[in-house]
Q: What sequence folds into this?
């Protein structure tokens, strides 16, 4: 293709919603192929590298984010059905969940409390501004919910979304190595369930996606933990701040 034609094509695509959709799909497909070639190594997480490549592309080309999102919103819309689809693995394990519901609820409460409490304590120790600390509190809840919680308790919703995404990526990247250091087994259903539940509790959707890629049991329990954190954090974090 002659350079002039390529430039004209780029100018056309970058100004239309087709750009965001095409760029997102193309970058993710390439990143996912590389992820599979590395044996699904955590450092090759396709979400992380897609984020990096797309951000660099937008900066280098000067394409405004609203123009990009005009096309990417079609993929963003699919997040809702994708989260709902996480209920299917849980339905298949409904008998196990009925037996374990008390322990799972206690684990979700403990994990969520530690995640939120650690943000408060560490933020205070490092002398961070109050608004920043309050934006960190819901970091282990999926981004849209974290934004709503931060707004209720006096944080900054946009920062809460950033912290939630970073937390999810860190969990997806480091979870495997942390679980190995803690010697959580991979040869039993209970071991995979523990890994998945921990990832879903600490790293919400990105952690659940990573767990689903590795093992079906881990993915199912990660989805459950994600849902529990959304409900518990939405109710308890604002209530705790009103009381104390």
A:
């Amino acid at each position: 293709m002659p350079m002039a034609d390529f430039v004209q094509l780029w100018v056309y695509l970058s100004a239309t919603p087709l750009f965001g959709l095409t760029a997102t799909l193309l970058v993710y497909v390439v990143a996912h192929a590389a992820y599979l070639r590395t044996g699904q190594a955590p450092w090759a997480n396709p979400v992380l590298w897609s984020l990096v490549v797309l951000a660099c592309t937008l900066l280098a080309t000067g394409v405004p984010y609203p123009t990009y999102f005009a096309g990417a919103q079609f993929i963003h819309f699919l997040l809702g059905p994708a989260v709902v689809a996480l209920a299917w693995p849980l339905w298949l394990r409904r008998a196990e969940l009925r037996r374990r519901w008390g322990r799972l609820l206690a684990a979700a409460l403990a994990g969520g409390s530690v995640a939120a409490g650690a943000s408060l304590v560490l933020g205070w120790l490092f002398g961070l501004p109050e608004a920043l600390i309050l934006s960190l509190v819901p970091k282990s809840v999926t981004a849209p919910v974290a934004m709503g919680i931060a707004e209720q308790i006096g944080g900054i919703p946009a920062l809460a979304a950033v912290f939630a995404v970073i937390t999810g990526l860190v969990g997806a990247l480091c979870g495997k190595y942390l679980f190995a250091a803690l010697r959580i087994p991979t040869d039993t259903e209970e071991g995979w369930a523990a890994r998945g539940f921990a990832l879903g509790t600490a790293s919400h959707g990105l952690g659940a996606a990573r767990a689903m890629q590795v093992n079906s049991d881990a993915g199912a329990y990660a989805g459950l933990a994600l849902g529990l954190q959304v409900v518990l954090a939405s109710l308890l974090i604002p209530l705790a701040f009103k009381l104390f």
